[in-house]
Amino acid sequence: NAGVMQNPRHLVRRRGQEARLRCSPMKGHSHVYWYRQLPEEGLKFMVYLQKENIIDESGMPKERFSAEFPKEGPSILRIQQVVRGDSAAYFCASSRTSVYNEQFFGPGTRLTVL
Amino acid sequence: AQKITQTQPGMFVQEKEAVTLDCTYDTSDQSYGLFWYKQPSSGEMIFLIYQGSYDEQNATEGRYSLNFQKARKSANLVISASQLGDSAMYFCAMREGGWTGNQFYFGTGTSLTVIP
């Protein structure tokens, strides 16, 4: 009964490179959420997706960030031309429905931009 | 205005004693959910407890209970009989927006240290 899977767990990129973060939701979950946690802060919502649809991207930076959740395969958070300020922990969560179910979080991907 | 406020950056508690972690929230929605998560040093987020805005009784999950005071907009977490393994960051979160609420709002967290 696997939980939410994220990979890689740690990712190091140089400024200007691209970062691709993957999230496989729990079995039976079709709702995926991405959050960013800066050092010493709580999690901040970025984007909410269902299969093949972006439902709410109000927390996504306007540039360089994109997310997808294809019909097959994991959800991907993509950061183009990374900058040092992108260094953070990125968490993915999934839920069975959009109703008040608790969101189950993955272990996070720690992105370090050199 | 902050949606979730946790005013205790750090707390200490003696092993086997109870501790209360404070959380206040701000919403104009009638329907919302309140959550507590634990984040140990390993970094994962572990769901602890959930309270719905219409639930009349305080939620309990083992040693965790949520002291829900709707009029005061507070949702404090009570951990009874603290254990060394309880040392971690604790985050209060809220989900608002009725049936289509999309996102969680998180507080800045409280770091709990259990002293042997």
Entry keywords:
heterodimer, A: 114 residues, mainly beta, seven-stranded mixed sheet, four-stranded antiparallel sheet, B: 116 residues, six-stranded mixed sheet, 12 strands, 0% helix
Protein described:
The complex is a heterodimer of chains A (114) and B (116). With 114 residues, chain A is mostly beta strands. In chain A, 0% of the residues lie in helices and 49% in strands. Chain A contains no helices and 11 strands. Chain A has strands spanning 5-7, 10-13, 19-24, 31-37, 43-50, 53-56, 65-68, 75-79, 88-95, 104-105, 109-113. The relative contact order of chain A is 0.34. The mean pLDDT of chain A is 91. Chain B is mostly beta strands and 116 residues long. In chain B, 0% of the residues lie in helices and 51% in strands. Chain B has no helices and 12 strands. In chain B, strands 2, 5, 6, 10, 11 and 12 form a 6-stranded mixed β-sheet that branches. In chain B, strand 5 (32-39) and strand 6 form a beta hairpin. Chain B starts with a strand and ends with a strand. The chains are: A mainly beta (114), B mainly beta (116). Chains A and B meet through strand 5, strand 9 and strand 10 of A and strand 5, strand 6, strand 10 and strand 11 of B.
